[in-house]
């Protein structure tokens, strides 16, 4: 290299060094390089679903597992799930179990032990529709706050469910005033006594053949429940008694409430799942669950 070339190279190197010194160093993005910085770890959710038990558009547990795995993942959660009772290993790192399965209160001794160990470390529960049914409501009511006995005539079938919002100050119920959906309500409930549930909304039982003698009764349909099992950490449960008609999961009033309830049960801020987060390789917002696809 001649003298003029050497001087030029020195000048370029000096200029680059000067620019680098003036350029602030950006922190490395969190979340695997997706560019979203957050001090809060993602909510880890396990969806416990079951086999479909009713006709088209009703009790579609497998469809819920598919749809809400996507809904929750798009909102930053880490989601797993199955159609079987989870093993201890499957929920070892879970923050909240979302349950949509008929008669989930029916558990053998090993399953009860697995669930109670999970609750003792403070894991949360969300119970949807007939998840709260089982053969031993006295026991299961102490897990989710209220339970229904399997096989008992204790349902309105498809009918109007007119909600009265009892706790208008609840963050889970924010923005909601009294409204009505078409679904199914239960009325012969076994309630936990110590502690008792915290009622978020009640409904007046419709006059249907299966509800004869109970029409007009006001029964809690949405509630929270907080308990500490012996020797454990406090845990939270959120219950929405409806979900008979699968379309209600996409209702513009119901879906945000469920998202807030799941976050609350997982001990996160209630708005933790309210924002759809951009994902690499996608430039458009996701479709609502069930949108553009048939039901079955």
Structure description:
This protein starts with a helix and ends in a 31-residue tail after the last helix. Helix content is 23%, strand content 22%. It is α/β, with parallel strands linked by helices and 296 residues long. The protein has helices at 3-22, 30-33, 61-73, 109-120, 137-144, 254-265; strands at 44-49, 78-82, 96-100, 124-128, 133-134, 146-149, 159-165, 179-183, 190-191, 198-204, 218-228, 234-240. The strands form 2 sheets. It has a 9-stranded mixed sheet with strand order 2-1-3-4-12-11-10-7-8, sandwiched between helices. Strands 5-6-9 form a 3-stranded mixed sheet, covered by helices on one side. It has a domain at 42-153 and 186-197 and 220-265: Class I glutamine amidotransferase (GATase) domain (Rossmann fold).
Write the layout of secondary structure elements.
Elements: H1 3-22, H2 30-33, E1 44-49, H3 61-73, E2 78-82, E3 96-100, H4 109-120, E4 124-128, E5 133-134, H5 137-144, E6 146-149, E7 159-165, E8 179-183, E9 190-191, E10 198-204, E11 218-228, E12 234-240, H6 254-265
Parallel strand pairs: 1-2, 1-3, 3-4, 4-12, 5-6
Antiparallel strand pairs: 6-9, 7-8, 7-10, 10-11, 11-12
Summarize the structure.
A hairpin with a 5-residue loop joins strand 11 and strand 12 (234-240).
Mean pLDDT: 85
Can you write the helix and strand succession as a string?
Answer: HHEHEEHEEHEEEEEEEH
Reading side by side through the largest sheet, how are the strands ordered? 2-1-3-4-12-11-10-7-8
* Number of E-state strands: 12
The largest sheet is: 9 strands, mixed
Assembly context of the chains = single chain
CATH architecture identity of one domain: 3-Layer(aba) Sandwich
Radius of gyration from the alpha-carbon trace, in angstroms = 25 Å
Shape: globular
Q: How much helix, percentage-wise, in residues?
A: 10-25%
CATH fold title of one domain: Rossmann fold
What is the name of the CATH superfamily of one domain?
Class I glutamine amidotransferase (GATase) domain
CATH class group of one domain: Alpha Beta
Structural class assignment: alpha/beta
**Parts with pLDDT < 50 across at least 5 consecutive residues:** 1-37, 283-296
Query: What portion of residues belong to β-strands?
Result: 15-25%
Quote the distance from N terminus to C terminus: 77 Å
- Note the total helix count: 6
């Amino acid at each position: 290299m001649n003298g003029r070339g050497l001087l030029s190279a020195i000048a370029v190197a000096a200029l680059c060094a000067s620019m680098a010194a003036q350029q602030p160093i950006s922190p490395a993005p969190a979340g695997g390089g997706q560019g979203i910085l957050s001090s809060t770890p993602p909510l880890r959710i396990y969806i416990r679903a079951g086999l479909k038990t009713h006709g088209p558009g009703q009790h579609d547990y497998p469809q819920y597992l598919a749809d809400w795995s996507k809904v929750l993942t798009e909102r930053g959660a880490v989601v797993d799930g199955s159609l079987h009772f989870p093993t201890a290993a499957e929920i070892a790192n879970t923050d909240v179990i979302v349950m949509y399965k008929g008669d989930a209160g029916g558990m053998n001794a090993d399953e009860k032990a697995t669930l109670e160990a999970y609750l003792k470390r403070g894991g949360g529960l969300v119970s949807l529709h007939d998840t709260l049914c089982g053969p031993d409501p006295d026991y299961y009511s102490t897990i989710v706050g209220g339970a229904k006995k399997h096989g008992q005539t204790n349902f309105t079938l498809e009918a109007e469910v007119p909600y009265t919002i009892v706790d208008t100050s609840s963050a889970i119920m924010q923005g909601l005033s009294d409204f009505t959906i078409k679904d199914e309500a239960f009325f012969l409930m076994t309630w936990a006594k110590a502690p008792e549930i915290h009622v978020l909304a009640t409904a007046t039982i419709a006059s249907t053949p299966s509800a004869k003698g109970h029409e007009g009764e006001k029964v809690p349909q949405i509630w929270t429940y907080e308990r500490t099992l012996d020797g454990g950490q406090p845990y939270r449960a959120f219950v929405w008694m409806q979900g008979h008609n699968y379309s209600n999961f996409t209702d513009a009033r119901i879906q945000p409430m469920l998202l807030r309830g799941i976050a609350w049960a997982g001990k996160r801020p209630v708005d933790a799942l309210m924002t759809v987060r951009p994902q690499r390789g996608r430039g458009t917002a996701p479709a609502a669950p069930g949108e553009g696809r048939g039901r079955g």
